[in-house]
Design goal:
By secondary structure, the protein is mainly α. The protein has a single domain (3-97), classed as Winged helix-like DNA-binding domain superfamily/Winged helix DNA-binding domain (Arc Repressor Mutant, subunit A), CATH 1.10.10. 40% of the residues lie in helices and 8% in strands. The strands form 2 sheets. A two-stranded parallel sheet has the order 1-2. A hairpin with a 2-residue loop joins strand 3 and strand 4. The model has no long low-confidence stretch (mean pLDDT 94).
Length: 99
């Protein structure tokens, strides 16, 4: 596994239950502010389901990825709802739940 991916996983492991972060936030946290798409790819390839909470990473407007690796956006939404994350329509209430 490439070092970039491992850095992504380390940051995402820190996102607390009930909060979300964005792909761009993760990219900035690892010192690669223009690599948000690569962050998405790393999370799509996440080999640590249940350890790296990739469902807590969303787009900057609060929308969910249709390509969520573990079952699509409906599964991701249900996982977030079960942790107490609020939504406005089909987007995370990013203003109140961003980490």
């Amino acid at each position: 596994m490439d070092n970039f991916f491992e850095k992504v996983y380390e940051v995402v492991k820190q996102v607390p239950k009930g909060k979300v972060t964005t792909y761009g936030d993760v990219a900035r946290a690892i010192g690669k502010p223009r690599a948000s798409r690569q962050v998405g790819w790393a999370l799509h390839c996440n080999p640590y389901f249940g350890i790296v909470p990739c469902h807590r990473v969303v787009f900057k407007d609060g929308s969910l990825s249709k390509g969520f690796a573990f079952g699509g956006s409906d599964v991701q939404k249900n996982m977030l709802l079960s942790e107490g994350v609020g939504f406005i329509d089909d987007k995370v209430d990013i203003k109140n739940y961003r980490w």
